[in-house]
Amino acid sequence: MKGSITVLLVFCVSFFTIQDTHAQEAPIKIAVFAPIYLDSAFNGTAFKLGNTSLPKYLLPGLEFYNGVMMAIDSLNAEGVNAEVLIYDSKQSESVIQEILSKPELEGVSLIIASFNNRNEIKPLADFALSKKIALISETYPNDGGVTENPYFVLINSTLRTHIDALYKYLQRFHSTDNLIWVKRKGSLEDMIQGFFTELQKKTPSLALRIKTVDMVDSLNQQSLLAGLDSNRNNVLICGSLNEPFGNAIVKTLSDNKDFKGTVIGMPTWDGFKDLAKPEYKNIEIIYSSPYNFPRTDKTSVSINNKYRNKFQARPSDQVYKGFEALYHFTKLLIKHKDAFLNNLSDKSFKVFNDYDIQPIRFKRDTPNPDYLENKKIYILKKLDGQVKPVF
What we know:
- It is globular and about 70 Å long.
- It folds into two domains: 2-157 and 294-377, Rossmann fold (3-Layer(aba) Sandwich), CATH 3.40.50.2300; 159-289, Response regulator (Rossmann fold).
- The protein is α/β, with parallel strands linked by helices and 391 residues long.
- The protein has helices at 38-41, 59-77, 96-100, 121-131, 159-173, 187-202, 221-225, 243-255, 298-311, 317-336, and strands at residues 2-10, 13-20, 28-34, 42-43, 46-47, 82-88, 110-113, 134-137, 152-154, 178-183, 210-214, 234-238, 261-264, 284-289, 357-360, 371-374, 378-383, 386-389.
- The strands form three sheets. The protein has a nine-stranded mixed sheet with strand order 1-2-6-3-7-8-9-16-15, sandwiched between helices. It has a seven-stranded mixed sheet with strand order 11-10-12-13-14-17-18, sandwiched between helices.
């Protein structure tokens, strides 16, 4: 006989006990942190947003939470022996440090986090290090300045790893095209270009020939058009995380159909909604992501149907991330126990994505890694309204 889930909401922490009634061992304990912003939606127990649409800033964390809840249902159906604690990391009366001092966190074997603020990462990472338990970071921002912490696991890979994957893709598929680096003024933009320049110098094969078009803040179409070649395929590489700037690059190709071209975007384009504009449908857009949710497999279809029936909405990628994070890593933790950190790339319980989690050391002679990072990057192509992996 399978167990049942007990739910208790206290101080924005939910306790979910998933138990097999025949299990003799104590349940493993897992903590999940997500930016749910309950204080923005509730005044005590009273919902204060009325019948208006939920503010956009609430949606990512709420959708991640909904995915976690769906994973709890699946684990419960399998009789998994676990206890899941879910914390709202945006609870105004309980900052991260205060949450981490709560007695119920004693005995936690795994932390899963969906961050949206860089300043929240290190306190949680320090806690994981002090307790010698893994912290799985699922979303951007990435490392948060964490070093010398072999318990910190980046699933959403660093910008440098993304740039490396994009460079290899360009070498393989676009080495003879008209490559144009479109740059916006800024320190982050300088850093991104620096990664590419470093790869240019280190590549054992022929380096890519890339022209640079410098902009100040906004993009000037005429300046960009001057570098395009009507007789070749033009590959416009967006060297900025600024979304309006990236949108302007795509719009340039959309407005000037005499030029054949491809736009290479940044990893943040994974959730870039402007790319769905009808006028961009025929523009080939390439970007990188550690995630690829095909939405056609059995698990995706099941999640989609259950989500639509319950919420009358289409599940976003955050729902799938929340589901995969809790289900996949809970199963791995149960299988490997104390050897969990050495088996993070085990594909036994693959849900949607492959992981290639490697130790990262800033100094070669350092015995322990500075953190662990997922090196598996999907290169995705968006064309004609469809998103498919190409590399």
